[in-house]
Amino acid sequence: MTGYSIIEILIALLLLSVIAIVVLRFVPNSPIQRYFQMRREKAERALWEDVLRQIVQMEQDGRIVSTESLAGTMGRSVPELRRVMGRMGEHDLIVDDSQKVRLTKDGKRWALHVLRAHRLWESYLADEARLPMSRLHHQAEAVEHQLSESDLAALDAHLGHPVEDPHGDPIPTADGELAHPRGTALSQWEGGAYVRVVHLEDEPPGIFNRILSKGIRPGLSLRLEEVSPQSISVLLDGSIVTLEQDLLPNVEVAEDTELLTADPRVTRLSQLPTGQPAEILALSDAIRGFSRRRLLDFGVTPGTKVSPILDNPFGDPRAFRIRGTTIGIRNEQAREIWVRRDAAVRSSTGGSR
């Protein structure tokens, strides 16, 4: 059997390329033309939505929005963004007066839809798909352009109408309301304060990944131990963690008023010794979605009595007695459940706040 030579294959490919070019150039409304036109329109729409989302996020952060600042934030060239934003201006989505870029009424409505899609999908990936936080943003960017209003309504209901995404950013409502962020940068706090992490900035990725590698997550309670010009040391789950100066602006915290107490009996469930009864005080905001619903279904609610009854030789999960039932709780969840030890039962081992 005689096969085709490489030269013959190359010639055939060249002829196909020439035919495709001729069809694209001289045959109007051909299937090939419609396909490539659809691809171009889809890519342009996605870029418009990226610009809109970035503008509303920068406005929420109190930053001045200009073509130059947008280009730097998005990693695009200034000439490219000027061309794109010119087209967006023609469609009455933005106004660019050379000093500041702002959204029109239609532009803001569209921007909040995209932002809502992005943050709801991040919540789904974290709560239901259990995706690591370091991968949420990139994955959500790929899906946010595909979700309709009805898709978002169904997703919102499925997730239990969350008000914040896994980073602590507020999720726009279906009516277009967007709450203001709650926290201030960790660098603004003094030593000795009890704080709760309310937001982590996920840009740039390198800084974000370093923060995650230190075990910092939204919802965690921290005590600021030592503050210096170079770093801040915090007490996290009984261990000292040092955050370098360049990380501090990306960690936003608020005063931990809910559990701010001098009671030495207050500790985390993960630090409760086996056999030590306690009363559940609260579940941290770090427990979200399916994990939170599962714990609540098992009766892990404030006021409930709990006691560790069995240690796992592999460390995880531990067995706890709650409402007459034995359940397993992973350590990463137990450390986000605050309890008060029963004073009537003394233990030689105590938890630290």
Any chance you could write out the topology, listing elements then pairs?
Layout: H1 6-26, H2 31-60, H3 67-74, H4 78-90, E1 94-96, E2 101-103, H5 105-127, H6 136-143, H7 149-158, E3 184-185, E4 194-200, H8 205-213, E5 221-227, E6 231-236, E7 239-244, E8 251-255, E9 266-268, E10 278-283, H9 289-297, E11 305-310, E12 318-322, E13 325-329, H10 331-334, E14 337-341
Antiparallel strand pairs: 1-2, 3-8, 4-5, 4-8, 5-6, 6-7, 9-14, 10-11, 10-14, 11-12, 12-13
Helix pairs in contact: 2-5, 3-4, 5-6, 5-7
Portion in beta strands: 15-25%
For this structure, what is the CATH class of the largest domain?
A: Mainly Beta
CATH architecture classification of the largest domain? Roll
Corresponding CATH superfamily of the largest domain: Ferrous iron transport protein A (FeoA)
Poorly predicted parts: 345-353
Largest sheet: 6 strands, antiparallel
Number of helices: 10
Helix content: 25-40%
- CATH names the topology of the largest domain as SH3 type barrels
Number-wise, the strands total 14
Mean pLDDT: 86
- Terminus-to-terminus distance: 80 Å
- Please state the CA-atom Rg, rounded to the nearest Å: 27 Å
Provide an overview of this structure.
Helix content is 38%, strand content 20%. With 353 residues, the protein is of the alpha+beta class. The termini are far apart. A hairpin with a 2-residue loop joins β12 (318-322) and β13. The chain is elongated. It has helices at 6-26, 31-60, 67-74, 78-90, 105-127, 136-143, 149-158, 205-213, 289-297, 331-334, and strands at residues 94-96, 101-103, 184-185, 194-200, 221-227, 231-236, 239-244, 251-255, 266-268, 278-283, 305-310, 318-322, 325-329, 337-341.
